[in-house]
């Protein structure tokens, strides 16, 4: 570190709060002050030096960072062997490697290999093109040539532990089938580093984390996927539901088969607004649910979206659509129920869950038919069927040309 940087007031001597002009390592932890500054560490605290052994387990902090162990815990995997002496410090199942071949003794015994033979790590027991050690690292079976049962030997399978995928033509880490399904190019390796939806997580990262490469917020929790990964939260989990005490008694559901379901939805609030999924009709403590009445398009849409934690836009999003029977802009002295209806419908349009009708109406109070309900429920839940399934449709009244055909097909494959 340059003297003029260390000597902040440039008086030629070491003052409190300045790193020592005469010492490369002010805190004595073993790492130079300049290196600590560049790494965002404190040159006055030796405990965060990469050369310091904070937990006294025999591994320096930098070594622990490199292998993924906890620098503040001498036994990261909790198997009573400190990290330095543990050949597999991240996996409590494995404690020994007697022959130093990279395979745990416990693993070798389980797979019929010899824990005293240092050469069998390089052997290919099942003759699938992968060595026994490579199979251990990959998580495949060293004594089964096709671990995932997709009829492609592990050594030839780009994804030997996943039967859905076999090929990766451009070797970018993403399966060909995945790229085709998500609008990527299976012949261009550079698209792995691109960010199709602009959420801060590249396409390869989306595949590895299981998020949607074309949706910046896969779990609809209002936080983009890349930000969730950076914060250590789950981009596929929307922890937005809260159970609260009921504030209404639905008198017409007492003893009805739907009573428990109605109460549960009424007790469920959606964060951060604490909006209840179901309010019923009327105000005050005693209300009606009218359980035998057909549900409307708006009512089902509201339940589906709130139940799946889709964050409602605070105002009408900037969209080209403006339904004639539900204007996109608010009116003076508008009731709260109308404002909520607008937020639900136009958020659903933004999320491409609904579109409305060709005559520019939405018809929120119309009864919802089975096809419309299926589309709303599937798209709100954002659940996709497994790619390898292609179930025949058992219905004689559905044709491939029907607009709802793909939703019925998905529902069959999802066993909905």
Summarize the structure in words.
The chain has 416 residues and is mainly alpha-helical. 25% of the residues lie in helices and 3% in strands. Among the domains are: 176-231, no CATH class; 241-413, no CATH class. The chain has 13 helices and 5 strands. It has a 3-stranded antiparallel sheet.
Characteristic key phrases:
416 residues; 13 helices; two-stranded parallel ribbon; globular; 3-stranded antiparallel sheet; mainly alpha
Counting DSSP H or I runs of 4 or more residues, the number of helices is 13
What percent strand?
under 5%
N-C termini distance: 64 Å
- Count of extended strands: 5
Task: Please mark out the parts with pLDDT under 50 across 5 or more consecutive residues, or reply none.
Answer: none
SSE string, helix = H, strand = E?
Answer: HHHHHHHHEEHEEEHHHH
Rg over alpha carbons: 30 Å
What spatial form do the alpha-carbon principal axes imply?
Answer: globular
Average pLDDT rating:
88
Structural class: mainly alpha
Largest sheet: 3 strands, antiparallel
Strand arrangement across the biggest beta sheet? 1-3-4
Helix content: 25-40%
């Amino acid at each position: 570190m340059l003297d003029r940087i260390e000597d902040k007031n440039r008086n030629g001597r070491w003052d409190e709060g300045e790193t020592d002009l005469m010492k490369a390592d002010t805190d004595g932890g073993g790492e130079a002050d300049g290196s600590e500054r560049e790494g965002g560490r404190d040159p006055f605290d030796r405990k965060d030096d990469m050369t310091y052994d904070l937990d006294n387990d025999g591994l320096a902090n930098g070594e622990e960072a490199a292998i993924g162990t906890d620098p503040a815990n001498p036994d990261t995997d909790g198997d009573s062997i400190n990290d330095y002496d543990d050949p597999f410090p991240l996996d409590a199942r494995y404690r020994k490697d007697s022959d130093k071949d990279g395979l745990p003794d416990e693993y070798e015994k389980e797979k019929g290999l010899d824990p005293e033979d240092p050469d069998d790590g390089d052997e290919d027991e099942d003759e699938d093109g992968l060595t026994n050690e490579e199979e251990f690292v990959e998580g495949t079976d060293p004594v089964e040539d096709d671990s995932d049962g997709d009829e492609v030997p592990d050594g030839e399978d780009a994804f030997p532990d996943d039967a859905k995928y076999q090929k990766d033509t451009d070797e970018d880490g993403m399966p060909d089938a995945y790229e085709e399904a998500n609008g990527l190019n299976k012949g261009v390796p550079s698209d792995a580093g691109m960010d199709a939806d602009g959420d801060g997580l590249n396409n390869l990262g989306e595949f590895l984390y299981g998020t949607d490469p074309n949706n910046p917020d896969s779990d609809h929790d209002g936080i983009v996927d890349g930000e969730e990964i950076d914060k250590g939260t789950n981009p596929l989990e929307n922890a937005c539901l809260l159970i609260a005490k009921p504030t209404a008694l639905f008198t017409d559901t007492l003893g009805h088969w739907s009573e428990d379901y109605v109460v549960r939805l009424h007790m469920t609030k959606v964060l951060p607004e604490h909006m209840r999924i179901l309010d019923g009709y009327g105000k005050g403590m005693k209300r009606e649910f009218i359980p035998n009445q057909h549900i409307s398009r708006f009512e089902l849409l509201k339940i589906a979206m709130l139940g799946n934690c889709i964050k409602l836009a605070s105002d009408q999003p900037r969209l080209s659509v403006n339904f004639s029977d539900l204007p996109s802009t608010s009116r003076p002295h508008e009731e709260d129920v109308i404002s909520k209806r607008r937020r639900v419908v136009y958020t659903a349009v933004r999320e491409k869950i609904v579109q409305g009708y060709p005559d520019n109406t939405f018809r929120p109070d119309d009864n919802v038919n089975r096809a419309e309900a299926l589309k709303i429920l599937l798209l709100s839940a954002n659940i996709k069927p497994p790619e390898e399934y292609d179930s025949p449709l058992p219905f004689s009244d559905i044709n491939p040309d029907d607009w709802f055909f793909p939703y019925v097909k998905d529902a069959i494959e999802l066993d909905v």
